[in-house]
Amino acid sequence: MTAQILATLLPVFLIAGCGTLYGRFRTPDIRSINTLNMELFVPMLVFAVLADGEAPLEEYVGLALGGAVIVVGSGVLLWPLVKWLKLNPKTFLPPMMFNNSGNMGIPLLLLAFGEAALPAAVVLFIVEMLLHFSLGLWMLSPGTPLWRILRMPIVLASIAGLAVNLAGVGLPGWLLEALHMLGGVCIPLLLFALGVRMLDVDFGDWKTGVLGALLCPLSGLVLAVPLIWLLGLSGLQAAALWVFAALPPAVLNYLVAEQYRQEPHKVASLVLIGNLGALVVMPVVLALVFGYVHPAAG
């Protein structure tokens, strides 16, 4: 089991480490790289996975619902604690809710469970992204029009992919292969960009960062336990929800906080210390998943 955990995690942190090392000696335009990734490569991957007629998307409805409940439920669960600790909910709660399902979630699930996990990883990523750009933006700025979400390339790719799948339209193999190849670029690039962002860690507010590193996976896992039972998830889908629930805060939380001037330095601490905390949290979660969930069973 130890070898399996290392085989899953080492490539993730090695690629992220390359990003950190490169960023230490160079100054890559990481914002442009992320824009290219989120507007081209990730949508290509999303469309390719959803449009593939061999992916029975109706089987992932329960998983999508579970992911949505974990995102929203984490905020609801932690709200009383945030008020008791007199933290700013607009600063603290979004990183606890919107996790790193892109930079870390997709690569981690693929490395842990193989190509069979790609539809589950993409479904959870889409759920998290849709909620982040609707509920998440509304939390920071209640006047934000929710229709803006329809302009996102990922949303357009999701709608198009679902339409093709549900209509039973068979895409030629060469087209799907090209889309998968383009989409495959996003996975190492997500990890590399995460590594570059690690250079921005601000330890000035380390106590809040450590608190977030504990509460983000804890709140998700507390919700995942009853959800897996209530939704009847098993095998690969149960394993995917476990991993999703334990993921650290998304780097995107920092970019959004910066855009809305919502204490971006504190959010950066929450995000980046939380991702460092994944070095401890994810091996434990993967040990539980490999030992008890039996992903190959479903």
Topology:
Layout: H1 2-25, H2 30-51, H3 61-84, H4 89-97, H5 101-113, H6 118-140, H7 153-166, H8 173-184, H9 186-197, H10 206-230, H11 235-246, H12 252-259, H13 264-293
Helix pairs in contact: 1-5, 1-9, 1-13, 2-6, 2-7, 2-8, 2-9, 3-4, 3-6, 3-10, 3-11, 4-10, 5-6, 5-9, 5-11, 10-11, 10-13, 11-13, 12-13
How would you describe the oligomerization state of the chains in this entry? single chain
**Class derived from helix and strand content:** mainly alpha
Distance between the ends: 20 Å
Instruction: Output the radius of gyration.
Output: 18 Å
Order of helices and strands: HHHHHHHHHHHHH
Low-confidence segments, given as residue ranges, are none
The total of helices stands at 13
* Beta-strand content estimate: under 5%
Subcellular location: Membrane
Keywords: Cell membrane, Membrane, Transmembrane, Transmembrane helix, Transport
Membrane topology: Multi-pass membrane protein
Main location: membrane
Question: What would you note in describing this structure?
Answer:
Helix 1 crosses helix 9, helix 2 packs antiparallel against helix 9 and helix 3 packs antiparallel against helix 10. The two termini are 20 Å apart. The longest helix is centred in the last third of the chain and has 30 residues. Helix content is 77%, strand content 0%. The radius of gyration is 18 Å and the shape is globular. With 298 residues, it is an all-alpha fold.
